[in-house]
From TrEMBL:
Domain Lactate/malate dehydrogenase N-terminal: 46-188
NCBIfam families the record matches: MDH_euk_gproteo
Subcellular location field: Peroxisome
Protein name: Malate dehydrogenase
Sequence positions that bind NAD(+): 51-57, 77, 137, 160-162, 271
One Pfam family in the UniProt entry: Ldh_1_N
Gene it is expressed from: LOC115747016
């Protein structure tokens, strides 16, 4: 059968969308209908991933596309978003996916977003600390947060880029400068420490990791990662050797992966899983679900430091309550003092980066 000229035009329009010369956002007929669906009040939140083409960004985009709470998914990066977007957009799940490439499209990528997840930045190689990433990632986080302040100042931000102990204070200073700072809306993602702690503790106890809940407080680097093994659920006890082993393994989980990857980056797959677990908790809180509690690195008064990771109650406006640490044993009190010393320096480094 001869295709009609109308059909030819339709195919040409779809093809133009799939192979755009400058990754313009001209809509194919299918995308136009999908956009109507998104605008037409389909239940769900608008979520942007900044750094969406990276090792974390790609599996994170895949998993967010599956999340039924997401109606619109914006994928932003400085490279490769046309390919990642085309690929993810073929998944037959509800979220409408749009891609954005390069800084000139940052504003558009962020406009109207409810939740912004940031895994943009360079990862570690063997022999590096997370702080060694500061010089590159600090500037990236500053630029992206300036974009958020301009385009979606009410969005909740999940910040993954390392060093989290410094990038969260950087983000806070950017938001303060632009008059958009709401401490409840800025959350450093430390969920991977909890995910690892649950896994390693479950191994020692011979339990299913899904049954285990280990609070991990402090920050997200070395000794600042402080698992509270005295507060594990279900209640249990450990020998001193088990406590040393578990504390060290949880604190060095990131380095374990960096070394195993031998120069090819740091944790990406487990991080994407952890990021989605955390983002999903934020979205459920934003929807109004009660009793959503997760650990995150936030503005805090549980210690004398301005930022600290602990359990927070997630609600419609983000981290609505920062929960106290609860009773610590002597081992944990010593760990807390070490953690606070390093954290204070990392926080100050982030603040000074913006104030200099
Ligand atoms: N919080 C955590 O628990 C945790 C866990 C793992 C990794 N990380 C951190 O996440 C970051 C990303 O790790 P990865 O393995 O995905 O790295 P990656 O290099 O694979 O990906 C990073 C992506 O960021 C993009 N990018 C760089 N500059 C950008 C900019 N200005 N705007 C937007 N995108 C930009 C890159 O193009 C790349 O696609 C690293 O800093 C890493 O240390 C944090
Ligand atoms: O260890 C890293 O550099 C990445 C991340 O912070 C992790 O904990 O896996």
């Amino acid at each position: 059968m001869q295709p009609t000229s109308e059909a030819n035009q339709r195919i040409a329009r779809i093809s133009a969308h799939l192979h755009p010369p400058n990754f313009q956002m001209e809509e194919s007929p299918g995308l136009r209908r999908a956009n109507c669906r998104a605008k037409g009040g389909a239940p769900g939140f608008k979520v942007a991933i900044l750094g969406a083409s990276g090792g974390i960004g790609q599996p994170l985009a895949l998993l967010m596309k599956i999340n039924p709470l997401v109606s619109v998914l914006h994928l932003y990066d400085v490279v490769n978003t046309p390919g990642v977007t085309a690929d993810i957009s073929h998944m037959d799940t509800g979220a409408v996916v749009r891609g954005f490439l390069g800084q000139q499209q940052l504003e558009e990528a962020l406009a109207g977003m409810d939740l912004v997840i940031i895994p943009a930045g360079v990862p570690r190689k063997p022999g590096m600390t997370r702080d060694d990433l500061f010089n590159i990632n600090a500037g990236i986080v500053r630029t992206l947060c300036e974009g958020i302040a301009k385009s979606c100042p009410k969005a909740i931000v999940n910040l993954i880029s390392n060093p989290v102990n410094s990038t969260v204070p950087i983000a806070a200073e950017v938001f303060k400068r632009t008059g958009t700072y709401d401490p409840k809306r800025l959350l450093g993602v430390t969920m991977l420490d909890v995910v690892r702690a649950n896994t390693f503790v479950a191994e020692v106890l011979g339990l299913d990791p899904r049954e285990v809940d280990v609070p991990v407080v402090g920050g997200h680097a070395g000794v600042t990662i402080l698992p509270l093994l005295s507060q594990v659920k279900p209640p249990c006890s450990f020998t001193p050797q088990e406590i040393d082993y578990l504390t060290s393994r949880i604190q060095n989980g990131g380095t374990e992966v960096v070394e195993a990857k031998a120069g090819a980056g740091s944790a990406t797959l487990s991080m994407a899983y952890a990021a989605v677990k955390f983002a999903d908790a934020c979205l459920r809180g934003m929807r109004g679900d009660a009793g959503i509690v997760e650990c995150a690195f936030v503005s805090s008064q549980v210690t004398e430091l301005p930022f600290f990771a602990s359990k927070v109650r997630l609600g419609r406006t983000g981290a609505e309550e920062v929960l106290p640490l609860g009773p610590l044993n002597e081992y944990e009190r010593v760990g807390l003092e070490k953690a606070k010393k390093e954290l204070a320096e990392s926080i100050q480094k982030g603040v000074s980066f913006i104030k200099k």
